[in-house]
């Protein structure tokens, strides 16, 4: 399982407007509706996709990804946004996204690839191509164009937008936003740019500032190198302990060979808390077990750390927006 910046989740919910219960949606994935919009605060990719799919059940989300992408601002990306601005050309700006994307996501990789017509800026994201993932990909491509338009002295439009999936039914809003054809059912998720576009000088390009910022980003990147390992180890330990009740942080830390303070610090460095990781683990374990017909609801409640099935039902409804029984029925297709 991977993580994406909470900034995207907050932006998606904001772009949906009054058609969705914004506060409840954000709370369901562990975000404080009144909290700061911190791009370093991460949410699980599965929880993010679930959130998008719940929104899709309430409103028409055809143009939601492009509206969300258009709302993204470089200033919200922290040092990475500044480094994107400071690069001397748009091509170099995108090269920084290619290199430093791990600072705000662990599920997407970017690639700049030469093409006979110019250069492809490719989005690589593995996993089941469920609706939530597809909407996220569309929003990511839209945001990549939005931030390019913020640094360019001239109007920016790709030559073509490529999208692997075959929806949405209409791409009129997408083509109006991107200013170019959008090809569905392509082999890649990508933006195709002309060489001339990527060679354009950025408005605020500065080589000296650029070197300083990339040095800072290199330090940040090296600091998250062990994130998947510590998060995965802590999650596994929590999952194994849940059948005995909700585990304490000091107990999990000892099992990992750490002090409680060290575990707290290392999780905090990656935008996570022990409580948040525990809730996330319980939620994901519950969803996985509900999809398995071999476990009753009472057994799943026990395996996810609840002493009573009623408590499990209330928590699951808070996490997902529906009861465990309803979720299992919907998953079966009934």
Structural notes for this entry:
- It is a single chain.
- The chain is α+β, with helices and mostly antiparallel strands and 334 residues long.
- The chain has two domains: 220 residues, H-NOX domain (Alpha-Beta Complex); 106 residues, Homeodomain-like (Arc Repressor Mutant, subunit A), CATH 1.10.10.
- It is 54% helix and 10% strand.
- The strands form two sheets. It has a five-stranded mixed sheet. A two-stranded antiparallel sheet has the order 1-2.
- Helix 5 runs antiparallel to helix 6, helix 12 crosses helix 13 and helix 14 runs antiparallel to helix 15.
Taking the alpha carbons of the first and last residues, their distance comes to: 27 Å
Strand order in the largest sheet: 3-4-7-5-6
- Helix share bin: 40-55%
Largest sheet geometry:
5 strands, mixed
SSE string, helices as H and strands as E: EHHEHHHHEEHEHEEHHHHHHHHH
Strand content: 5-15%
CATH-level-2 architecture of the largest domain: Alpha-Beta Complex
Number of helical stretches of at least 4 residues: 17
Q: Quick one: CATH class of the largest domain? A: Alpha Beta
How many domains, as an integer? 2
């Amino acid at each position: 399982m991977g993580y994406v910046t909470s900034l995207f989740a907050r932006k998606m919910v904001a772009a949906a407007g009054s058609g969705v219960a914004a506060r409840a949606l954000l709370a369901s994935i562990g975000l404080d509706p009144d909290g700061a919009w911190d791009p370093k605060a991460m949410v699980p990719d599965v929880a993010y996709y679930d959130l998008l799919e719940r929104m899709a059940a309430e409103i028409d989300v055809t143009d939601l990804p492009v509206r969300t992408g258009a709302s993204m601002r470089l200033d919200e990306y922290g040092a990475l946004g500044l480094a994107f601005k400071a690069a001397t050309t748009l091509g170099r700006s995108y090269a920084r996204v290619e290199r430093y994307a791990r600072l705000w996501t662990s599920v997407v990789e970017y690639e700049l690839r030469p093409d006979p017509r110019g250069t492809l800026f490719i989005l690589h994201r593995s996993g089941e191509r469920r609706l939530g993932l597809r909407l996220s990909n569309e929003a990511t491509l839209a945001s990549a164009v939005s931030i390019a338009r913020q640094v360019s002295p001239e109007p920016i439009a790709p030559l073509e937008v490529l999208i692997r999936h075959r929806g949405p039914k209409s791409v009129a809003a997408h083509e109006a936003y991107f200013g170019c054809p959008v090809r569905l059912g392509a082999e890649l998720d990508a933006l195709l740019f002309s060489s001339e576009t990527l060679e354009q000088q950025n408005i605020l390009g500065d080589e000296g500032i650029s070197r300083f910022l990339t040095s800072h980003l290199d330090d940040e990147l090296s600091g998250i190198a062990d994130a998947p390992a510590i998060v995965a180890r802590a999650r596994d330990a929590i999952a194994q302990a849940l059948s005995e009740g909700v585990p304490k942080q000091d107990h999990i830390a000892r099992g990992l060979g750490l002090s409680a303070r060290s575990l707290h610090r290392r999780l905090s460095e990656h935008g996570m808390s022990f409580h948040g990781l525990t809730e996330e683990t319980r939620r994901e374990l519950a969803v996985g077990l509900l999809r398995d017909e071999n476990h009753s609801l009472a057994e799943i409640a026990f395996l996810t750390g609840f002493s009573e099935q009623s408590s499990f039902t209330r928590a699951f409804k808070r996490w997902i927006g529906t009861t465990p029984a309803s979720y299992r029925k919907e998953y079966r297709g009934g």
